[in-house]
Design goal:
eight-stranded antiparallel β-sheet; elongated; 10% helix
Length: 491
């Protein structure tokens, strides 16, 4: 969308060029970053204190564009053209900027005239909206609105200063619920014009039911059940399509460095109650992996024709669905939530030689986190019982911790065991000889306050100590300093 780029077509209520309303932040940002010659500058603005509730703004200053995404779902809600001189806009084969743009034209944010928009491009419309000027400004703004597109004109000069593309019949009608209404188009822009049979139905949300049971609600199709220890790799491929990558994991394990340096039993965590303590599953998210020479390897999904030929441990990476699945020999998953009425899981019925999904890692794609933009955001709800409202992916961890402590209270053999299992562990990635994909625990169990509060409010992963792991039976939370859950492992 620079001086050398092709004209960009406007689709009112749908999008601008390849950028489609409803597309995920991961989808748009990945495509933009893959064309640095066209998009040389990328600015991302978000709330460091509350990145999951406030909008995320992606600005392309060299292209005169600003894209606004909602915080909880990270889907594109508003496309704004702020500088008409930096993009060749076309609507139904007519130039939006009268006379078109040439490379000799001086840089200016001046846009199309009111007459050009009203008489030639879009035709008559309902009366526009007058917006009073801000403080110390003598002129207000007149917004001329059409279904799915609107132009802003300063009342003192005729040319438009900006254009907005949105989903809805008019700007005044959609403005109030712009970030909360249900998007019409899918998260992946590339599938907008394709038939449903040509791509896997996208996942809207994961419902965590306990006892190793999850349910993935989808955009159009029926929900997909996932049972840890029973769902096979073939089942995943049939429901979600082939993975974007397969990370083969062989004999490596997480290194746990105890504070006393002995490497023996944890003196803070002796004799945990079976099934009730914090089992430390392999939390390697395998979404930032580099191919290394010590038995870990990432493979394109197209290179694996038979899931049955996979090694004993591997990850299926679904970057566009927002989750990873750990494939290994069947094991008994975490227990049921005490108030759910579900029975605790029994030993796997599958043969020990048959591979199954044993862990699901749901990625939050929190701006400022280390793995940001590796996956698109995955939303989830934990259903603790049938009566109360569940915990969700936007819940601050302090709230999640308080609820889960109440749920599991009385399920431990002693108060000491309860305290030991709910202390955080510091998480480090890509430090020293550890590959980028690995997760390494540093130090012992760290002391924390009763509610698991953390100091600091920034969401930037600058290295050591930015994230901590908190565990409850069957659940492992990776939490940023601002309280946002970066990922949730269900095992």
């Amino acid at each position: 969308m620079t001086a050398k780029s092709a004209p960009v077509h406007i689709f009112p209520g749908k999008g601008l060029g390849f950028i489609t309303l409803g597309a995920s932040l991961h989808n748009v940002l990945t495509r933009v970053k893959s064309h640095p010659q066209i998009y040389p500058a990328i600015d991302l603005a978000y709330s460091s204190n509350d990145p999951l509730r406030n909008p995320v703004v992606l600005q392309l200053p060299s292209n005169g564009l600003r894209l606004r995404f909602d915080g909880p779902d990270q889907r594109l809600r508003l496309i704004e053209v702020l500088d008409f001189s930096r993009v060749d806009l076309v609507y139904k084969n007519q130039d939006v900027l009268k006379g078109g743009k040439t490379t000799e034209q001086p840089t200016s944010s001046q846009g199309p005239s009111f007459r050009h928009v009203y008489n030639r491009l879009f035709g008559p419309s309902y009366p526009g909206e007058y917006i009073s000027p801000p403080d110390q400004s003598p002129y207000g703004t007149y917004v001329l609105s059409y279904p799915g597109v609107a132009f802003s004109f300063p009342c003192n000069t005729p040319p438009a200063t900006s254009m907005s593309i949105f989903q809805g019949s008019s700007w005044p009608e959609v403005r109030a619920n712009l970030f909360t209404q249900q998007p019409q188009y899918p998260r992946a822009s590339a599938v907008v014009s394709k038939t449903r049979d040509s791509f896997a139905d996208e996942v809207e949300e994961f419902h965590i039911l306990g006892a190793g049971k999850l349910e993935a609600s989808r955009r159009t199709g029926p929900p997909v059940p996932i049972i840890l220890g029973e769902t096979s790799p073939q089942d995943l491929i049939a429901e979600f399509g082939p993975p974007d990558a397969i990370y083969r994991k062989h004999d490596r394990r997480i290194s746990i460095h105890r504070a006393n340096g002995t490497g023996g039993a944890d003196p803070l965590n002796p004799n945990l109650s079976p099934g009730r303590g914090m089992d430390l599953p392999d939390t390697d998210h395998s979404s930032t992996n580099s191919i290394t020479d010590d038995s870990d390897e990432e493979t394109s999904a197209g290179q694996v024709s038979d899931p049955g030929s996979l090694p004993a441990e591997s990850f299926f990476n679904y970057f566009h669905h927002g989750f990873d699945a750990f494939i290994s020999h069947p094991s008994t998953p975490g227990p049921a939530f005490p108030a759910s009425g579900m029975p605790d899981p029994t030993a796997p019925a599958l043969p020990s030689t048959q591979l199954a999904v044993t862990k699901i890692i749901l990625h939050g794609n929190v701006p400022g986190s280390y793995p940001f933009n590796r996956h698109r955001r995955s939303r989830w709800t934990i259903h603790l019982d049938q009566a109360s409202e569940g915990l969700n992916a936007e819940s601050p961890y302090d709230e999640i911790s308080e609820r889960l402590r109440g749920v599991w209270k009385g399920s431990y053999s002693s108060p000491g065991e309860e305290r030991a299992t709910q202390r955080p562990m510091v998480l480090n990635r890509g430090w020293g000889d550890s590959p980028e994909s690995s997760v390494e625990f540093l130090g012992g169990w760290e002391e924390t306050t009763a509610k698991g509060q953390r100091s600091g409010a920034d969401g930037h992963d600058g290295g050591l100590g930015n994230t901590e792991l908190f565990g409850f039976p069957g659940l492992l939370f990776e939490v940023l300093k601002n309280g946002a859950v970066s990922s949730l492992t269900v095992y």
